[in-house]
Amino acid sequence: MAIYHFSVKTISRSAGRSAVACSAYRSGEKLIDERQGKEQDYTRKTGIEFTKIYAPENTNPELLDRNQLWNTVEKVERRKDANLAREFEIAFPHELNAEQRQEMLNELCQELVKRHGVIVDAAIHAPHTQSGSDERNYHAHIMFTGRQIDLETGDFAKKRNRDFNKENSSQTVNQWRETFADLTNQHLARAGHLSKVDHRSYADQDNGLQATIHEGSKVTQLRRQGIDTEISLKNDLIKEQNTEKQHFPEILKGLEQEIRLTESQIDKYKLDMSLETIKRLSSTMETPKQAETPKQQEKPLERKIEPSTRIEKPKLSATQQFNLLTEQLARQKQQKVIDKLRSEMTELKSDYAKQTELSKKPKPMFFGKLKWEQEQAETRGNLNNIKRRFDTNKTKISHLEEQKPYVSHDEYKAVAEKHPALHREMLKEKEQQEQIRQRQRNLEPTRSRTASKDRER
């Protein structure tokens, strides 16, 4: 299921931050901070999947260089409490691949340039699974300047962009949150996925779900180390309750399907019992009640049971019987696959419980901390893999139960070998049907010639 994350942050000088340092970290490059006289080197940073700078047309080419761009911003913004840049932090749906993520980022950044006329510096980051991050956590940092580009000069405008000032910021951010949700749903649909995201809060959606508490960097770091906190435990409980509520419709649907299947089986059983009862009655009525005058009672009895003996199941053709047998064999084969997947899911549940117990191992106070951290990282990776395999099996079972069993050549061959007489009769029927179709095709030219002659007359 796709998740929605869109946050807006401010990179401010008053907080002791540098636009050059922020850009170097996000892009994984080495930039020179001329204002502070420092070299910001993040070339060893891993997980940088894609970086790109977006700008309006007629922008000064010097500003398309990352180092030149943010040093210019540091010079233009002279106040000691200046907001140097703003940043959109977004999460990509885990259903999208690398190419689809880049297409989605391009579309979002181009729209940002179009609306506000600013320069955008974007980077896609892959998750750091070794440090305990979720393997689905592909996200992007989208930095953009606080001043728009003067299209006449190609440099920064003298006045700052007012779309994100105190008066308009809330409305502008809400519009962007909605835009990003719509864009995400478009790309999910384009990639063939039915899941959707919603930018509104759970309260606005009125779906009965509870919002989690913001954890922050410190709580997240402790969580990755396997250390539980009051906030993380409460969030885990909220997520579990929300998951149960979201699965209620699926559970109800499954129960309704089981009820319908049971009702159909009961109806079939009743019909079979009725036919069996009629057979027994007819066989009982055929035996003479009086041994003295069997000839006199034979005719009336036959006349009485005549209507009941005509109640028979419709006779199926050889082709229909053969198809039913192959479908039954394919259904049995499909059920074996489902049973195997369910058995594997039971084993995965057991493995998940064992790994969960290992994850609760307390951190040593003095010796063995490094080994404990390595074991906890391995355990978290195992838990993620088990959950992914469990969800995959669940999806496979759902698809198999919904689709009609596929009859392959193996089922056809098996039924033909077990019922050779029925197979020959089926082939004979098909041959007769083909002869009838051939006669019809042969008659069509004659009919067309007759019709043309009639038109000529």
Can you describe this structure?
With 457 residues, the chain is α+β, with helices and mostly antiparallel strands. It is 59% helix and 10% strand. It has 12 helices and 7 strands. The chain has helices spanning 19-27, 66-76, 98-116, 169-190, 202-205, 216-224, 230-286, 294-309, 318-359, 369-402, 409-418, 420-456; strands spanning 6-12, 30-33, 38-41, 48-54, 83-91, 120-125, 139-145. The strands form 2 sheets. It has a 5-stranded antiparallel beta sheet with strand order 1-5-7-6-4, with helices on both faces. The protein has a two-stranded antiparallel ribbon with strand order 2-3. The model is unreliable at 287-306 (pLDDT under 50). Residues 331-358 form a coiled coil. Residues 283-302, 418-457 are annotated as: Disordered. Belongs to the MobA/MobL family.
Features:
12 helices; 59% helix; 2 domains; MobA/MobL protein domain-containing protein; BirA Bifunctional Protein, domain 2; alpha+beta; conjugation; single chain; elongated; two-stranded antiparallel ribbon; 457 residues; MobA_MobL
Layout of strands and helices, then pairs:
Blueprint: E1 6-12, H1 19-27, E2 30-33, E3 38-41, E4 48-54, H2 66-76, E5 83-91, H3 98-116, E6 120-125, E7 139-145, H4 169-190, H5 202-205, H6 216-224, H7 230-286, H8 294-309, H9 318-359, H10 369-402, H11 409-418, H12 420-456
Antiparallel strand pairs: 1-5, 2-3, 4-6, 5-7, 6-7
**Global outline:** elongated
Which CATH architecture of the largest domain is right?
A: 2-Layer Sandwich
Q: Using DSSP, what is the number of strands?
A: 7
Strand arrangement, major sheet: 1-5-7-6-4
Which range best describes the helical content: under 10%, 10-25%, 25-40%, 40-55%, 55-70% or over 70%?
A: 55-70%
Largest pleated sheet: 5 strands, antiparallel
The total tally of domains equals: 2
What series of H and E elements makes up the topology? Answer: EHEEEHEHEEHHHHHHHHH
Number of contiguous helices: 12
Radius of gyration: 36 Å
Determine the structural class based on helices, strands and strand pairing. alpha+beta
| CATH hierarchy class name of the largest domain | Alpha Beta
Low-confidence stretches: 287-306
Strand content: 5-15%
**Mean pLDDT level:** 82
Query: Might you state the CATH topology name of the largest domain?
Result: BirA Bifunctional Protein, domain 2
Question: How many angstroms does the end-to-end distance come to?
Answer: 71 Å
Pfam family, one: MobA_MobL
Coiled coil: 331-358
Region (Disordered): 283-302, 418-457
Keywords: Coiled coil, Conjugation
